[in-house]
Amino acid sequence: MASPRLESMCCINTTEHGHKHHMGAYNVTCIVSASLSILGAIYLLLPRKVPDNPRRRTTLGYERQIKIINWLTLADLLACIGILVRSSSWLAMYKQFQGIPSHRTGHRSYRIFCAVAGAWIQYFYITTYFWTLSFAIDIFLLMRNRASMMWLYHVLSWLVSPVMCLDGLLTLYFPSLTSCEHRLINLLPHYLSTLLPIIMVMIVNPILYIYSARRVSPLLTQMSGKYTDQERLIAKQVKEKFAMIHIVFILCWLPNVVNAFIILCRFMKSGGTDANDLNDGFITLDIAMGILNPLQAFLNAWIYRGWARCSEIKLFSGRGRNWTGTINERRPSVRAIPVPGTNRRKGSMPIGRDDDELSEHSPLLH
User: Alpha carbon 260 to chain centroid distance?
Assistant: First the structure.
């Protein structure tokens, strides 16, 4: 869905290439996946009941993690809205013109819409890559009792992302929005603008999570003075959450990396004569991207919050029900355990707020 090859489809005539049936199925899968993810994103963004105890609101970076997750979810939501609009428009065009309008039909405005919609989707998905990276960086800092760098996360996500997106799209569409250049010098920046952030997250995040996971058990032992089954449960939950977050990202975006690698290899081998030709392998990858890319927000809702926690949402919470009673009863309760730095000696350097405790309310333990 954020694959550069799909943006380049705005520049070809699918009727001439015999892609009509493939693109119809592709857009239907995009609409279904995007709709599920919009629901998942709304679920993540809905307001939750505030803990009665103010100390519980600042546990294991609770507030800083929630902020990052909310920004990630917002970017996912906007990307899915773009997918929904673009795929619905494409299906309407197929029905009217039996394929994407070609240059001969004179539908210049549709080509521009296709390019703008592709830019919208690619921008917000690049933003999600950087927010995913930011979450891992923040966990790494948190496990070392260091303050969050929210300003850096916003710079990466909202300023670096548009630069990369525009650089990739301008090289593809320059000098006209209604036609694409298919030389390697035009296509390579377009592909790299999307692939580099994905590959960076795939490589950097597990390294950060591994180093962070190594700090969990010693940290719990140091602060509680013991390492019992309860501390083992906490450590296990945190490590499992690290693994699941990264598995979901790889599941959603690995097809894009494989697709781009094959396309670029074919392009360089053939001189670009068949870079846009489809075979069964490419059709399978396109359908996989149409399902998995938009599904990121839906899977994130399951990973970061869990579907069994609807009672925490204000709209679904019973009147007068205690917030602490909404914790998943299948999981043993976990008491708050301070992270080094919360009990500071006189003269030590403070690190922001007391946002450094571990409890069952942390997104890492959901």
Answer: 19
Per-residue pLDDT tens over the stretch 120-159: 999 999 999 999 999 999 999 988 888 889 999 999 999 9
Residue bearing tokens 């892609």 = 19
d(CA 133, CA 205): 6
Single-letter residue type at 218: P
Question: Distance between CA 63 and CA 59 in Å, rounded?
Answer: 8
pLDDT in tens, 44-55: 898 876 655 544
Give the chain's end-to-end CA distance (angstroms, integer). 29
* Beta-carbon contacts of residue 355 (< 8 Å; ≥ 6 apart): 58, 61, 62, 63, 64, 148
DSSP string, 42-83: HHHHSPBPPPSSGGGGGSTTHHHHHHHHHHHHHHHHHHHHHH
CA distances from 151 to 131, 132, 187, 341 (A): 12, 15, 32, 22
Question: Cβ neighbours of residue 191 under 8 Å, at least 6 residues apart?
Answer: 4, 168, 260, 263, 264
pTM beyond 0.85: no
Amino acid, single-letter form, for residue 140: F
Return the higher-pLDDT residue of 303 and 356. Answer: 303
